[in-house]
Amino acid sequence: MKVLIAYDSRTGHTEKMAQYMAEGVRFSGNEVEVKKISDIKTEADLQGYNGYLFGSPTYHRDMTQGMKTFLFLAQKAKLQGKVGGAFGSYTHSGDAPKYIYETMQYVFDMNMTDLGSFNLKEAMIDKAEGMKACQDYGRVVGEKLNAAG
Ligand SMILES: Cc1cc2nc3c(=O)[nH]c(=O)nc-3n(C[C@H](O)[C@H](O)[C@H](O)COP(=O)(O)O)c2cc1C
Predict the structure, then answer these.
(1) Which of 90, 98, 99, 118 to mutate to test the pocket of ligand 1 (most atoms within 8 A of CB)?
(2) Distance in Å, CA 94 to ligand 1 centroid
(3) pTM given for the model
(4) Could you give the CA distance from residue 146 to residue 140 in angstroms, rounded to a whole number?
């Protein structure tokens, strides 16, 4: 099965999370594609995956404007029942992943990971612990796909 990791990132931290999470998905035996949301132009670009991880950093206690626009596009892709998760880098409040997760859960009606949304403090990303936390999130999402058959 195949997972799409779609992220926004201004200074590269959420992008790094996406790359580590992709490693975790591969550990679970699944395929993965990592894309910037700016490279996803139509809802057709969102078709053909079994699982979706959407990521945005938190700026001004919110997700980025790009992620908001992306979620309107994702709504058209009819992701109901697909496995999902949300993530992002932050320094102190980390609001974005929770809001993205809730949209995926309640608006798109996706099959969300039991781990909840995944916030990682920016300072942790370059530490082994932070890298492992990202890999673990990706792996658990991949294992949920395996269990769903
Ligand atoms: C202007 C500005 C506003 C920010 N606002 C928040 C915030 O409200 N909450 C928070 O947790 N982090 C906030 N941050 C920190 C970023 O979320 C953090 O630097 C994050 O790692 C950036 O991710 P990126 O490299 O993927 O863009 C802010 C950073 C800047 C520069």
Answers:
(1) 90
(2) 8
(3) 0.98
(4) 10
Q: Find the domain containing 53 and state its range.
A: 2-148
pLDDT of residue 148: 82
Quick one: tokens of 1? Answer: 């099965």
CATH number at 87 reads: 3.40.50.360
123 touches ligand 1 (CB under 6 Å): no
- Which pLDDT score, from 0 to 100, does residue 20 have? 98
- Is residue 20 within 8 A of residue 131, CB to CB? The reply is yes
89 close to ligand 1 (CB < 6 Angstrom): yes
Binned average pLDDT, 10 residues per bin, the chain of 149 residues: 98 98 98 98 97 98 98 97 98 98 98 97 98 98 92
How many domains is the chain partitioned into structurally? 1
How far apart, in Å, are the Cα atoms of 103 and each of 5, 63, 84, 98, 126? Answer: 16, 12, 11, 9, 29
Q: Is 58 in the pocket of ligand 1 (CB under 6 A)?
A: yes
